[in-house]
Amino acid sequence: MGPRMDNETVRVMLVDDHELIRQGLRSYLERQSKFSVIAEAGTVRQAIARALKERPDVVVMDIQLPDGTGIEACRAVRAELPDTKVIMLTSFADDEAVMSSVMAGASAFLLKSTPGEEIARAIDGVAAGQSLLDPQVTSRLLEQLRSLASTPRDDGPKLTENEQKIIERIAEGKTNKEIAAEVYLSEKTVKKYVSNILDKLNLKRRSEAAAYIARRTPQTR
Hints:
Blueprint: E1 10-15, H1 19-30, E2 35-41, H2 44-54, E3 58-62, E4 64-65, E5 68-69, H3 70-80, E6 85-90, H4 95-104, E7 108-111, H5 116-127, H6 135-150, H7 161-171, H8 176-183, H9 187-200, H10 206-216
Parallel strand pairs: 1-2, 1-3, 3-6, 6-7
Antiparallel strand pairs: 4-5
């Protein structure tokens, strides 16, 4: 799946456990010729399975799903389909949810109260390769990551320079493949670094690293 041309239809998948919300979004998007809703899902399991089958350009993903979170689904989809972009949709935003979404590879984070026109613009933007995360949120997250990486703590590990570079790029929503190209390492080596970082922090998943950082570093508002 290469870069999308401006005149190409954006293939969209909608993930929400409320059918009315999916219907409303589908109806709005399909009134515009540039969008085609190719699949829907209401659970994490369905979202992953249908995304892998249909390979959408953009997934609009609810965070709260009956069998888990959209963050889990986002991470799984992005791991298998790095060219598929994910927009997280939620009823309310908090720093931990935003950071977890970024760590999982989301390109945008929108409230469900966002007007349809803005959601459509976001879909079009991320399909074209833009990241629409709030710059203040991204800046704060990166500052927290740098603080964690460079400040010695009596009760916590210190990350190496390479680990710091990699975790900062994870925070920007980049996949292992994208990180490898930027830091001039093989994808296999980056994957090993990510594993080492999580081991150092005694964590199992990327999204848990965001929660860890949120708890351990002061936030400025």
